[in-house]
Structure formats: structure tokens, C-alpha cells
Amino acid sequence: MRAILLAACAAMALVTVPLQAAPTRLKDLVEFDGVRGNDLVGYGLVVGLNGTGDGIRNAPFTEEIMANVLERLGVNITGEQFRPRNVAAVMVTARLPPFARAGSPMDVTVSAIGDASSLLGGTLVMTPLNAADGEIYAVAQGTIIAGGFSAEAQAARVTQGVPTAGVIPAGATIEREVDFDFRTLSNVRLALRTPDFTTAARIETAVNQTFGRAVAVMQDAGTVIVSIAQTQASSPAHAMSQIENILVEPEIRARVVVDQRSGTIVIGEDVRISRVAVSQGRLTVRVEESPMVVQPNPFSNGETVVVPQSTAALSVDPGTGGMAEVNTGTSLSELVAGMNALGVAPHDMIDILKSIRAAGALHAEFIVY
């Protein structure tokens, strides 16, 4: 095994070329302070369903909101008993984009909260959408596009997708703008999506080289502060249009990501292992029970007895035995290539990687899902 593994590793080393992270636009690496969306939520009513709505007895809140809607429209239903199956109570969610202006449309998501079986073909009645401050920022209404279907008979039912949730493209109209004036900013913070000191230092250097002066200062691994006034741009918006297109080569941490359910292994190029010996084998234990029934002789006073008869066997797969030594500096991709040449299964490979990490020889962040 050692000879085969080392030979496979050597062959892999001949074709392995160290890859560098490609230069990436700054807008794809950081979030700009103040440029963010806001979550909106509302409680509404969907009508026009083909008998797939809420059962009023199981969802009394649907009857309450329906009565409120009808009363606002001038219909007096006090004391009336109604049990329609074509309405459903829903939660409406949306995300107010940054710099959204009054009158602009946006998409909304509609989800049933009662026992409705499908929202297909339903229409959302005018629903106000509130932000975390309690203010109304948009109003939603329109026909729902559901992502599935459901068919039901007396003794069978089939469902595909999720028919109890759907979207309304451009189904909301923005009625209120977020009180934020980008022109008044004197400094802008660049928040790295993946904090790293090396990447932050490269961003600082790249921004300063673009403007020809020290306008950016690295605060920590996740923040770089840019002085808008020192960029001498005509406005903060013009300065940001230059900053977001600056190319920076991000520093990638050494990581090994493992998905145990599917057997998927993703290995970063900078992963390295120390000198370690690896042994992997399969132990199989088989136990069989074959009880034997012993009958007494005819006309005797004996009893029928069940005699246990067991067979136990142990076997080891000879193709995976032995020890393989991996030298210092060998990349993990070369080790995996060697194990692939030996026919090691993905789940066995995951166990080997865990053991190497437990031994302290794996120099990378190990993430398991």
C-alpha cells in the first residue's frame, strides 16, 4: 500500500500547479456601511381559492381578518355565520432594497399560516408591510404564483412542490422611503464578508493606490475605513463607484469541507499535512444462528428441546491493510489522489481525514456538515 500510495502522490505532484485566488472586485468582497436592505412583514388575506383555503373552525383568525376587511369595505356582517373555503390567512414578507424610492415596485413572498392546502390561483388583498420600527413602508396586492400543485381524491392525495407558498413579482409598491442621506457621509466603512487581516491590508493598499493618497485605513480584520473627503471625488456616490470596482486578490484560508450525508469532500489548495502514517482496513464480523430442534423418542417421557447452534467468523479486507507514510509538505489533494488510486470509498476517506486531524497533522480548518 505504501508504494502504491507514494507513487500515486508523486504522479499527482507532477501535474499539480499551485493556483492563486483570482482578483475580485471590491463590491464582491465587502459590504458598504449604510448600503443595506430592510425586512418587511405583513399579515393579509388571500381570496379566490378553489376550496383549498383555511377551515374557519381550525383557523379562527382567518374569520376575524375577513370580517375586518369586509367591514372596511362597508359590508356589515355582525352576527352572520359564514364558513367559506376559498380564503386563507397568510404572512407576506419582502425586503426593501437600499435607496428604494416611493412608487418603485418590489417582489413579495406569500406563505399560508393556517390549514390551507394550496394558494394556487389566489389573489392577495391589499396588505400593508411594516418594518421593525412599526412604520408602513409598502403595500402589497396581486395574483399569487405558487410553486407546486396538489391533487386529492377520497383515498389518495398527491402533492408536488410547496403549494402553500408563492410569490408575487412586483407585487408591492413602496410608499415610504428610508430616511438616509448618503451625501452626508464623510467616512465609509468597508465590512469584509470573510474577515481576514491579509485581505483587509490588500484592500487598504489597493484603495490608496487608486486615489494616490492615504484615504483608507485598516481598522481590524473585518473593517477598512475610507475617508470620502480625502478622495477629492465630486460626491460620495462617485467615490463609491470607483472604490467598488477596485480589483483585490483575497486571501483564502486553508479549509477542508466535508458533507457526511453525501460523501462530498472539498479541499482548499493551501491545505497541508505533516508527516504521518496512515492505515485503513475493513473488519467484518459475521454471526449466524441455526437453532436445531431435538425431538424425543416415540412413547417416551422426554421433551422437545431447541439446541442453539451458532457460527461466528471474522475477516479483514486484505486490499486495504498496511501502513502508508506521507512526508511533510505533502498537499492533501495529493493524499486524496493516492487514496483514490487505492480505491478508498468516500466515506472511508472522510474517516481518514478525521483521524489525520485528530493526530494534529492536518493544518487547515476542518468543517463537517
TrEMBL record:
InterPro entries, per the entry: Flag_FlgI
GO MF terms held by the record: structural molecule activity
Database matches in Pfam families: FlgI (PF02119)
One of the GO biological process terms: bacterial-type flagellum-dependent cell motility
Cellular component GO terms, alphabetical: bacterial-type flagellum basal body, distal rod, P ring; outer membrane-bounded periplasmic space
Keyword vocabulary terms for this entry: Bacterial flagellum, Cell projection, Cilium, Flagellum, Periplasm, Signal
Superkingdom of the source species: Bacteria
Intracellular or extracellular location(s): Periplasm; Bacterial flagellum basal body
Functional description taken from the UniProt entry: Assembles around the rod to form the L-ring and probably protects the motor/basal body from shearing forces during rotation.
Homology family: Belongs to the FlgI family.
Family matches, as HAMAP family: FlgI
Quaternary state and interactors: The basal body constitutes a major portion of the flagellar organelle and consists of four rings (L,P,S, and M) mounted on a central rod.
Record-given protein name: Flagellar P-ring protein
Organism listed in the record: Ketogulonicigenium vulgare (strain WSH-001)
